Amino acid sequence: MALAPLRALFPQSLDVLRVIPLAATLLALTVMFWGWRWVGRGLSFWWGLAIVAITALSPITILHARTVISEAPVFLFSLLMMVLLERILLNPPRGWGIWLGILMVCVLYTRTIGWVLVAAWLAYLLWKRGRAVLPQLS
Predict the structure, then answer these.
(1) In whole angstroms, how large is the CA radius of gyration of the chain?
(2) What is the distance between the alpha carbons of residues 39 and 42, in angstroms, rounded to a whole number?
């Protein structure tokens, strides 16, 4: 991902590599909170706050935030994709295919499991919207 430029800028410090997972975790929690109105349709603001608090205080989340592994960026890209898909289903923003493509590339280049996630997201989008999404995807 972006570890090589950080390593080149700060060759003496290995702790600087922990910045990316920490930033990705904090951004993912932010996306989870602010994207709750699209993902948790019908559930109150307090449910979103509770889910974010449980996720933020989870020992595995804390471990992933301080370890140099790709789980935190994949978590961030997955949450961004879920929020985007739900937003597309409710009220498609202009040029949503571009954002969908960018997030798919990010997921694919971060982890190999991205192929499965992208296939599932596309299947979900086709299931919910039908053939209406095909012109935007091509």
Answers:
(1) 17
(2) 9
d(CA 134, CA 128): 12
pLDDT at 137: 65
Q: At what angle do helices 19-34 and 71-90 cross, to 10 degrees?
A: 20
Tokens coding 102: 């960018």
Instruction: Report, as ranges of residue numbers, the positions in the chain whose pLDDT lies below 70.
Output: 1-3, 133-138
Distance of CA 128 to the CA centre of its chain: 20
| pTM for this predicted structure | 0.83
Alpha-carbon distance of 2 to 80, in angstroms, equals 19
Burial 60-81 (b: 16+ CB within 10 A, else e): ebeebbeeeebbbbbbbbbbbb
Q: How many CB atoms lie within 10 A of CB 125?
A: 19
